[in-house]
Amino acid sequence: MVDTRRRVKLYVLNDERQWDDxxxxxxxxxxxxxxxxxxLLVRAExxxxxxxxxxxxxxxxxxxxxETLIVWSEADNYDLALSFQEKAGCDEIWEKICQVQGKDxxxxxxxxxxxxxxxxxxEEIPDAAPPIELxxxxxxxxxxxxxxxxxxxxxxVRREKLAxxxxxxxxxxxxxxxxxxxxxxxxLEGLRHIYEIFKSIFLLNKNALLELMFSDDxxxxxxxxxxxxxxQPQPIRHREYxxxxxxxxxxxxxxxxxxxxxxxQTYRVQYIQxxxxxxxxxxxxxxxxxxxxxxxxxxxxxxxxxxxDDKFLPELFALLTDEATDDGKRKELVFFLKEYCxxxxxxxxxxxxxxxxxxxxxxxxxxVILAMDDADVRQAAIDIFAHIVEYSPSMVRExxxxxxxxxxxxxILMNLVIEQMICDPDTELGGAVQLMGLIRILIDPENMxxxxxxxxxxxxxxxxxxxxxxxxxxxxxxxTTDDVPCKDDYQTSQLLSLxxxxxxxxxxxxxxHIKNYIINKDFLRRVLILMKSRHTFLVxxxxxxxxxxxxxxxxxxxxxxxxxxxFLPVVNAFQANGDRYNLLNSAILEMFEFIRMEDVKSLxxxxxxxxxxxxxxxxxxxxxxxxxxxxxxxxxxLNDKPILDNSIHQAAILHNSRFRRDPRSLEEExxxxxxxxxxxxxxxxxxxxxxxxxxxxxxxLDHISKIIDGKKGHNDLDNKDVYSNTTSSTRPSNPLVNSNxxxxxxxxPIPTKVASPPSPGLTPNSITRKTGIVGLxxxxxxxxxxxxxxxxxxxxSKRVRLTP
Length: 804
Description:
Elements: E1 7-13, E2 19-32, E3 37-44, E4 50-55, E5 62-65, E6 69-75, E7 78-84, H1 87-101, H2 118-123, H3 142-151, H4 156-168, H5 171-185, H6 188-203, H7 207-213, H8 219-225, H9 238-245, H10 257-276, H11 282-285, H12 289-308, H13 312-321, H14 327-344, H15 350-360, H16 362-370, H17 375-391, H18 393-404, H19 413-422, H20 430-442, H21 456-467, H22 469-478, H23 490-509, H24 511-520, H25 523-528, H26 536-551, H27 555-563, H28 568-577, H29 583-598, H30 601-615, H31 623-658, H32 668-675, H33 689-709, H34 714-719, H35 784-793
Antiparallel strand pairs: 1-2, 1-7, 2-3, 3-4, 5-6, 6-7
Helix pairs in contact: 3-6, 5-6, 10-12, 14-17, 16-17, 16-19, 17-18, 17-20, 18-21, 19-20, 20-23, 23-26, 26-29, 29-31, 30-31, 31-32, 31-33
Main location: nucleus
Pfam family, one: PP4R3
Subcellular location: Nucleus
């Protein structure tokens, strides 16, 4: 059986003054040679790794709190705590610490805590500081006591001395007796002095004093002392509220007396921190850290005790899902579960906690709760759902996929959450915004896991688009049945804006599924109807959605937009906006600027040919002028194409006879002139294509036209044999360059398919492009071996491209 006496949780205080759980393990004390002394060792319960190795320093102040807690500081702002499962284990380790430091184990603190500044170190010597003598507890001395307590707060040493004096003299109970006397006498001045006294006691930041004040028999009296704030004109009746209005409800009877005590104590202490005590100043904030730690460890104990109870939680979930449970009882159960999950957020081992909730049926229970009519209950269910999704979205997705095989679309958890978002009664849609964020987490591929046989991404997204997407888009489709939005009120527009934001996320992250949905449903056309809304924020959401689609740079999207004339509503909105410099103007201009920067040829052509009349007079940006220039350059290239069509066609035929073409290379024939290269003849310099065309384009194109038209005789063809099967050892040069060439045999008419036998050892697939001047066709040379040797010795030339 595992020894639980030494079982502990290790905590470290973070920069935000919150305790971080560093793991569960077993503590021991042993001599460590490396540290040259007795040390505290904590080994992890899971794998035996070392969680803590801390030497027990002779001058370190160790504090024993709440009988199962040991707290100490190892360095500046580095506080550690060991929370024991059993009191006996805590006592054993405490005795070891006191033995090393030579202290009596009956004390709760082994050293005086010194937190002085550099100046204070010179002003005071802790060992020489005399003990503080407290004035007698009398009504006439209340003002003196208040001034004394306030004066020591600036000195850490004097705070420590005062705390010791209060604890030793049983001073708190004596002060409470004076409090009752003042209340009976209606001595308001004395009551206000007592308020200042107890506020100072809290600022002493001593756990021993807090435990004394929070005991069951006096905590309500302490709260009463804090009702008489001098800054308030009338006393605030905190005791009346706690005793009459803040009723404790046991949704399930609690038989554990210790658990019941912790729950009551934690609620009251939390009330003191949040309501009774004034908001601490910057100076006072760190002086209440012990109070925050007290509440934190109480919550940890509550969660642990409930989790260890074998009957409590199973009974709770059984009542939640039982149809016979009345709505009032179920509401109380939901609120308890929400508070329980909130407490558990401080756990480091939340994985085990949420797995336990999943095994108990938390998600089926949430389906029942979300179907209730009570808005407060549904909001509590959403808060619980948020805790689960933020910690383990994969667990939620796995449950949704499992229930999809047995449940109808209307009742699966994902659609219930979407419906809650759509039906949020809040005019500002606060709940809808929260649910939209949770849905985004669930459909985010970045947090989806991949396994050997399948991927969570593929499976869940296929499910989502098949079973849930129609629910998400239903409000948008219902509101765009006409040419204008059917409903254009503020709340509806806010909801549609949220839906579009979620769909924009889908466009960016679900490229395949969302593309099929948008194109097959002609969904963008329906979205663009919302451009006529009177709410600018909704119009901007539409523009962002269109911009996200264009940003994908997908030709399927581009052809869909062009074919459907889907730029028209955007252009109309731009035109209606006029010269106003606002968000709408900037958003639309940025979209067109993106098209220009990315040189999306199909969209540029469509915009200029269809909508340039609207853009022609826009001169405060250069976007549309540059778009027009790009369009004209594109058209110039297309107009030059017929001159070379026949030549390119023959080159493509020859190319096809030697190479297997990819049927998807749609632009290969257009750009073959700019993609192929040739090598110069021996002694011939490499001429840049741009310079060559600048000087000789007109003459060369005329020459090629004559070849193509067949207006010259065979003598001319002998001089310019471009497409004949050559047997000469001299490689034909580029037909655009007028170079001296060796005469070739008379040419024959160009056949429809050229077939020339390859040179020995050269297969069609082995023909490679060579660097040099751009050529239409590469011929294998007879002396290919020599060419290969030459190529090996010469460095490759940079590919020459013709640019406008």
